[in-house]
Amino acid sequence: MTLQELYGAIDADYTQAMRVLRIDRLLDKHIRKFVANGVIDSLLEAGKTMEPRQLFEAAHAAKGVCGNLGLVKLADLSSTIAEEFRDGNARTMSDAEVRETLSQIDALYTKTKDGIKAYASA
To answer: What is the pLDDT, as a whole number, of residue 122?
Structure first.
């Protein structure tokens, strides 16, 4: 499996990732580390407590990492959570809607992890 095939399999944007990292070797290195870096795990953990500051910080970090790696759907969902809990922003989502968004993140993260594991073992 190539990097481009991986990105197709996980519904990510290879072109976006290459705009940021520019070299396949760097993208390969960082996508392999994605699961171990725990950024999405931290966001999902923060969702268990629904503590606003933790949710914002974890979502903001996830948005950046995912955006840089071309994981645009994860980045977009993380951004939704970050903006919901950004200081000074009025809440527009119910707790149930936040939990649903986190559930979507979890499902997409599982798909992404599985794809990366398949890629790394090929």
So the answer is: 84
